[in-house]
Amino acid sequence: MVAKSRLHRAVSVAGAAFLAGAGGLALEALLVRLSGLTLGHGRAAPVGIAIYLAAWSLGAFYAGSRRGSERPLWLTAAFLLALAGALAPSAFAASTSGTLAWLTTLAALAGVAFPMGFFLPLLARRWPLGASGDLGWLFGASLAGAAAGAWGLADWLAARAGSRLALAAAAGAALVVAVGGALTVRRAPAESAATDPELAAPSSPPAPGVTPRAAGLVLAAVTGWVGTLEWFAVRLGLLWFGGRQATLAHVLVASMVALAVGAALLPRLLPRGRRGLALLALLSCAGSATLFFLPQTLAGSEARPLGLRSLLLVGPALLPFGAWVPLLHRELGGESGRRLGRLLGWEALGAAIGLPLSHLLLLPTLGMHGTLLAWMLAGAGLALVLAAGRARLVVLAGAAVVALLVWPRAGRSPVLASPPLDRARFELLDFDEGPHFAVSAVRDGLSGETTLMTDGFRAAASGRDYDYMRALGHLPLLMHTEPRRVGVLAFGTGTTAAAVAMHAEVESLEVLELSERVIAFAPHFAEVNRGVLDDPRVTLTLGDGRHWLGRRVGAYDVLTMEPLLPDSPFGVYLYTREFYERARASLRPGGLLCQWVPPHALEPEVFEAVVGTFCAAFPWSSVWLFGTQVILLGGERAPRPRLGAFPAAESELGAALAYLGLERPAGLLARYVADGAALPRPPRPLSDLDPWVIHRPSRPGALAIGDLPRNLASLRRIGGEIPPEWRVGLGAGAEERLRCLALVRAGREAFAVEEARALGVELADPDLATGLEDLLEEAARLAPNEPGLLRLEAEVAFARDLRRAKLLLAADRSQEGSAAAATLLTRAVALRPERAELHAYLALALERLGSERAADARARALELCPRLDETRVGEQLRAWEP
Fold first, then answer.
1. What does the alpha-carbon distance between residue 25 and residue 253 come to, in Å, rounded to a whole number?
2. Which residue segment(s) compose the domain that 850 sits in?
3. Which residue has the higher pLDDT, 732 or 267?
4. Chain centroid to CA 515: how far?
5. Residues 248, 192 share a domain
6. Helix pair 49-65, 99-116: axis angle to 10 deg
7. 257 and 154 share a domain?
8. CA pair distance 260, 254, nearest whole angstrom
9. Chain-centre distance of CA 869, in angstroms?
C-alpha cells in the first residue's frame, strides 16, 4: 500500500510539475518576445530572459525559505498569475518608449516570473523521494512540460489565436497548479507522513565538503553558462535551419527535452559527492564542445524533420546541464523544499550576470568561439576544484581529450561553419559578431556582387537586383513638396540613404540602424552608398529602430525603410498596426512613410495581409511597383508630385534618376499601381499581439517560386488609374510612356510566369498574364527607348540565352550544339560579365569546340570565383564533361 501510495503521489506531483513547466516556459517565451517592443529586440533576449529567470529564482528562494502553512503561497501564486493573465497583454500592447515603458515591461516580466518560482520548492516538499534528495524525475517532468508549453502554447496556439489567448492559456495552466496546491495543502503533509516513512524524515544529511554557499555559487555560474549555450543554440539554429519562428520553436523545445533527459537520467548514473559534480562539470565542457562540430553532427540531416535536426544541434550540448540542480540538491542537507528554494535563489545571480556578460562583453570581444572556450575553461577549472585525489587525474585526462578535439576548430566561429556562410561561392571580406547578429561582407563569385549577410540572411547587396533600394530613397522625396527632414530606418549597404542624400533640399538625414557592425562594414559597399555617412547632414542613431521612433514624434517629412522580411520573427514587428501608429506619429504634417515589401518572398495570403495592414493604417496610402518589388507610401493625405523637382539629365541626380527611369514625372507615376483604399482589408491584420505570419510553415522551393507571379497578378487585378490631379503638366509623350510602362508591368508578370514554369512549377491560375512577346512588342511601339522596357528586354534575353545554353551543354555534345551554346553564352557574358558561372559554362562550350579561348574563359571564371569547382556549377560541369 505504501509503494502504491508513493507511486500515486509521484504521478500527481510530476503531473503538476509538468503543467507548471508548460505554463512557465510558454509565459517566458511569449513575454520575452513581446518585451522587444519596448526594450528593443536587440536587448529583449538577454535583458528579458535575465529578468524573468532572476525573478523566478527569487520566487523559488522566497517559497523555499517560507515556514508555516503553504496555503498563502499557493493563493498568492494563484492571485498573481490570474492578474498577469488579465493585465500582461495590455501592458505590453500599451507600451511605448521611455523609462516608464521600460519599468512597465520589466515589472510585467518579474510579476509573472516571481510566482512561477514558487512551484518547484513547494512541489519538492510533496515529492515522494524528496527527503533522500532525488529530484531528477521531478525536474525532468517540469522540463518536459516546458517543452510542451513552448510548442503547444507559445507556438501552436499563438499561431492560431494570437499571443493574448496564448498568454491567458499559459497563465491558466499555472493557475490550475496553484489552485490545486491550495486545495490539497491541508491533507497532503499529514497523509504523506502517515503512509510514507521516507517523507516523514525531516531532512537529508549534507554531503561532506559541499556547503550551501559553494553549491549556490556553482549553480550561479552554471546558470550563466547554460543560458549562453541556449542563446547560441538559437542563433546557430537560425543559421542552419532558416530564420523563421518554426526554427526558434523547435530549438527551444529541443533544449527543454535535452535538459529533461539530463535531469532524469544523469543523477542515477553519476556518483554522489564532489566526484559526481566534478564529472558533471567535465561532461558540461564536452557538451559545449559539440557546437564546434555541427557540420559533422548535422551532415546528411537535411531531409530529416526539423525537430530531429534541432535535437541533434542542441541535445548533446545541453543534456549534461539538466542534472546540475538535482545533483547539487542531493548534496545539501535540510528539508527538501527549503534547500531547493535556497539553491535556486542563486540562479538570480547567474541570470543577472552570466547571460548579460556573454551578450554584452564576451561575444563582441571574443566572438562565439572565444565565448564558448571561456566558459569551457571555467568549467574545466570548476571540475578540478571539485575533484580530489585520483578523480583529478580523470578530470585532467578528460579535459585534455576535449581540448585536443576542439583545438583545430578553436580559432573559427561556429557561425562561419554554417551552410549560409561556408559556401564555396563566397569569398569572406569581413566578419564580426555583435550582440544582435553576426555580420559578414562576402564577395559572391557566381553572382559577381558584394553581399551583406546578417547571420545567414542576405540583407542587401551591390548588384543590379537591388536597384529598388535607390527607388526607396527617390520616390518619396519626389512625391513630397518639401522633404527637408528625412529618416532612413535600416542602413544595410547604405544604398537608400545615398539616394536620399543626392537631393539638395534635404537638410537633415537621420539613419536608424540596429547594429554598429553593419555601419562598420559600410566601406565594403562604397560603390552604392557613396560614403553617405560622411555627409555633414547625416546623423547616425544606433539601436532598435522601432524603439527610437517612439522618441521622434513629428521629426520627419519622409521616413523610408527596408526592414527584415515581414515573416521573420523579429522583422514582423515593423509591419504591424501598432508600429504604423508609431511611424505616423514620427511624421510632420504632410509627411510620408515609405516601405518595401517583397512579393517574391511571401505567399499570397501573407503578402495581402502585409500590404492590407499598411494601407489600413493610414488615411491615405498607395501601392507602387519598381521592377518586381512593391513600395508602399502612406500619409495623412494624398501628396502632389513635385514636377519641378526633376533635375537636368546632365546633373548627378538627373543621371541617377534616368538610370532608374524616373527622370521625368511620367516615369515616376508609371510605377503607381493603386490607391490603398482599393485593397480589401485583410481578415486577420498584423498586430503586436497577433503577428501570425511568423508562424506560417516553410514551403518547398517549387511552391515559393510561384509566389511572385501570383502576387503580381493580385496587384494587377486591383490596379487603378493615376489620380487626375497628378497628370496635370506631364508634357508631351507622357501618355505613351505611361501605357508603355503599364505593358512592361504586365510583361514582368508574364516573365515571372515563364520563369516559374521553366523550373517545373505548376501555375493553375488562368488569370495570370501571358503573351510576353506581344506585350514587349506593343510596349516597344509606344516608347522604344524607355529604360524600364530596355531593362526587361535585357533580363528576358539573358534568362532565355542562359537557360537554352545550359540545356545544350547538358544534352547536346555535337559541334553544332556546342557552337550554339558558345554563341548564347557569349551574349550572356556581355550582359553580365561579373558572373563567374557564365565564363565557366562558356569555357566548357569552347573546350568542346577545341577553341584556344577556352583557357582564358576558364581562368576568368576562377579569378572571379577561386573555389568554383566546389560549387553547384562545378558539379554541373563535371557531370557534363565527356
1. 10
2. 787-880
3. 267
4. 14
5. no
6. 40
7. no
8. 10
9. 32
